[in-house]
Amino acid sequence: MLPLSHHDITEAVQRTDGALVRTPVIESADLNARFSEAGATGARVLLKCENLQHTGSFKYRGAMSACLALSKMERECGVATHSSGNHGRALATVALSLGIPCTVVVPSNASSTKVAAIRAVGATIVESGPTLEERENTLTDVVSRTSMTVVPPYNHPHVMAGQGTCAVEFHEQTKERDCTLDTLITPIGGGGLLSGIATWMHHRSPSTTLLGSEPELAGDAALSFHTQTLQPQMPPITIADGLRTGVGPLPFEVIKAYVQDIFTTSEDAIIQCMKMVWETARIIIEPSCAVPIAALLAGKQSDGSAVDLSRFAGQTIGVVITGGNVDLEHLPWEDRTP
Amino acid sequence: MLPLSHHDITEAVQRTDGALVRTPVIESADLNARFSEAGATGARVLLKCENLQHTGSFKYRGAMSACLALSKMERECGVATHSSGNHGRALATVALSLGIPCTVVVPSNASSTKVAAIRAVGATIVESGPTLEERENTLTDVVSRTSMTVVPPYNHPHVMAGQGTCAVEFHEQTKERDCTLDTLITPIGGGGLLSGIATWMHHRSPSTTLLGSEPELAGDAALSFHTQTLQPQMPPITIADGLRTGVGPLPFEVIKAYVQDIFTTSEDAIIQCMKMVWETARIIIEPSCAVPIAALLAGKQSDGSAVDLSRFAGQTIGVVITGGNVDLEHLPWEDRTP
User: Fold this and answer.
1) Which of A167, A229, B204, B222 has the most CB atoms within 10 Å of its CB?
2) Residue A156: per-residue pLDDT
3) Both A172 and A84 in a single domain?
4) Considering the domain boundaries, does residue B1 fall inside one?
5) What ipTM was estimated for this complex?
6) Is residue A16 in a domain?
7) CA A338, CA B77: separation in Å to the nearest integer?
8) Final residue of a structural domain among A150, A168, A202
9) What local confidence, expressed as pLDDT, does residue B338 receive?
10) Lowest mean pLDDT: which of A172-176, A306-310, B111-115?
């Protein structure tokens, strides 16, 4: 039995009613033209703009879903997590809005901008060493001294269900446009978003092909998918900082059941596509959100063969834009311009 | 009698049906928080995202409205205009889509990104000097040698009516959110957008306070408004390249009738607010679109006194985000970072 059902997502929608931004779906004629030129003639690309979610990422959905599922006593004791980025910011902001104490374990090498954003919403910050093991050990230490509930970034049914609420909206919004998603592609880091979305879409739109995408440098999900066996995290060096983590075991069970493939792409393609989306769609997206676009335009399938973009000709392709938190003082193309 | 009525805008809506993006209205909790912190406690800021219109600006509305009003013979002879960027790009793209020949006169100080975009859609480009007079003289020269119809950037009822279609959507979209705009503020360059919007809003939402905004360095509209006499264009040096032009006489008649005030703001405030909107609302906006935000947060009224932001406390403030065409290789804050 899978760890998540569409009923869990329906419950998450009800639980979070009124607490989330119904993020817009946008379409750019200029972006569509790039896809046509590259071989997907006549394809339409619909962008589900989770960069316009509260705190600038889809992580807010999972954090809100998880916190609203807590008992009164659990809320009084508070929540904790480890994160150097969007999940920590989302959880801290949700906790502030619900009056829940919040502690975020932050690795010593985290960007000071991101730590400042977490601190700004009133969370207690505890610094740990930089490795995943050190982060987890510090978090274990924090919760063992308190009665806080850990809200993990992805490997939890309430979090996965919360991320899945994005698919409920996206599916409604495509129906409002009198179209159906032929393909839906998301980035994959820990897999919370993709597993939540896949659970809903498999149930409500079974004709939609579901794809994940990740950087080659963080290609554990594609390797896990290809071998059907969970593979360890790779060294966290990709520019797509939201996707450095390994896939969680619970999301992986869902992904094996419902997802057709996981594509990978290069660092150069990610940076080029990030800039291209800024120019054509006029929205701020993180490197992680450029990954699905780059994986379609210049990617590999999980078996290592090149993605044939012409297979998407004439299709309506849904892409989840996962976040828009970028350090505007250090844009990745600045160092690469002649 | 004014040069524009709400019937003209209704006709423009009918004429352009299906040819425009119904651009989303977005709201950012982070941006609202900046307004609260600055004195407009509890204010909500709704952004009407014309940066997500075809060609990345509201100019597409006016160009489409004007071209669809041409006779078959006029279409065959072609259209011409002068433009510092967005209007030229919009007209050239509309012309391409309707199969109309197009020539664009471009001032020598136009953004190179914008000129490249005009060229990319197949328009003929003719360069002129930077002042309005030089631009108009060159355009007169072009059309005297051909039978082309001039589609001016703002001083024309069909163009003003086309820009006004933006207000029809914005008004509907605020009703869908069960709210009413207490204030609606736009940038003002030539005044086509503000006059079109003011005509519709005065008729359909008379309780909404209508404001214009412009850079101090291009403060001819505020001076014209204060003196109730059309003043000449100022030297075109503001970073807000879309607002360097002087106000047109037709828009000015409408603005005198319906607009409550025109605010001005400094170059530094424009750049800071542009970056702040990128960070809080996660959309790409041009310097011109930062002007209304900067004028509210750090502006002057047309009589020279400071804007008191506390007067907007608790209000729903509509801001038209006019365009998102920016040269990502040269962002204005890069040179100013220590």
Assistant:
1) A167
2) 97
3) no
4) no
5) 0.93
6) yes
7) 43
8) A150
9) 41
10) B111-115
Taking an 8 Å cut-off on Cβ atoms, the answer to whether A282 and B329 are in contact is no
A335 to chain B: closest CA residue:
B329
Domain contains A271:
yes
Instruction: Provide φ and ψ at B19, rounded to 5°.
Output: -100, -5
**CB within 8 Å: A52 and B26:** yes
Do residue B290 and residue B142 come from a single domain? no
Between A232-236, A268-272, B179-183, the lowest mean confidence (pLDDT) is in A232-236
Q: Are residues B99 and B34 in the same domain?
A: no
N residues, chain B: 338
* Ranges of residues in chain B whose predicted pLDDT is under 50: 337-338
Q: Are A282 and B278 in contact (CB < 8 Å)?
A: no
- The pLDDT assigned to A130 comes to 81
Which of A20, A282, A327 to mutate: most B Cβ within 10 Å?
A282
Is residue A221 domain-shared with residue A280, that is, in the same domain?
yes
Q: Are residues A93 and A177 in the same domain?
A: no
Query: Is the pLDDT at A84 greater than 80, yes or no?
Result: no
Q: Mean pLDDT, to the nearest integer, of A144-156?
A: 94
- For A50, nearest residue in chain B (alpha carbons): B282
Determine, for residues A282 and B284 on separate chains, whether the beta-carbon distance falls below 8 Å: yes
Q: Final residue of a domain: which of A150, A174, A190?
A: A150
Range of the domain at A136: 59-150
A2-24 residue pLDDT tens: 999 999 999 999 999 999 999 99
Which positions in chain B have a beta carbon within 8 angstroms of at least one beta carbon in chain A? Answer: 21, 24, 26-30, 51-52, 54, 56, 275, 278-279, 281-284, 324-325, 328-329, 331, 333-334, 337
Task: Name every chain A residue with its beta carbon within 8 A of the beta carbon of B328.
Answer: 275, 278-279, 331, 333
Residue of A nearest to B20 (CA): A29
* Same domain? A143 vs A264: no
- φ and ψ at residue B210, rounded to 5 degrees: -105, 125
Residue of A nearest to B283 (CA): A283
Asked if B324's CB is within 8 angstroms of A56's CB, the reply is no
CATH, residue A81: 3.40.50.1100
Q: Give, as one character, the DSSP assignment of residue B6.
A: H
Task: Give the pair of three-digit tokens for residue A142.
Answer: 């924090």
- Listed in sequence order, the residues at least 6 apart from B101 whose beta carbon sits closer than 8 Å to its beta carbon are B77, B78, B79, B95, B124, B148
- Say which of A26, A284, A329 has its CB closest to residue B282: A284
Per-residue pLDDT of B234-279, as tens digits, reads 888 899 988 988 999 999 999 999 999 999 999 999 999 999 999 9
Given a cut of 80, whether residue A204 has pLDDT beyond it is: yes
Examine the domain organization and report whether B82 and B219 are in the same domain: no
Question: For residue B168, which of B188, B197, B194, B193 has the smallest C-alpha distance?
Answer: B197
3-class SS of residue B120: helix
**How many angstroms separate the CA of residue B95 from the nearest CA in chain A?**
15
Are B185 and B231 contained in the same domain?
yes
Q: Scanning the structure block, which residue is given the tokens 């844009």?
A: A331
Question: Strand B124-128 relative to strand B102-107: parallel, antiparallel, unpaired?
Answer: parallel
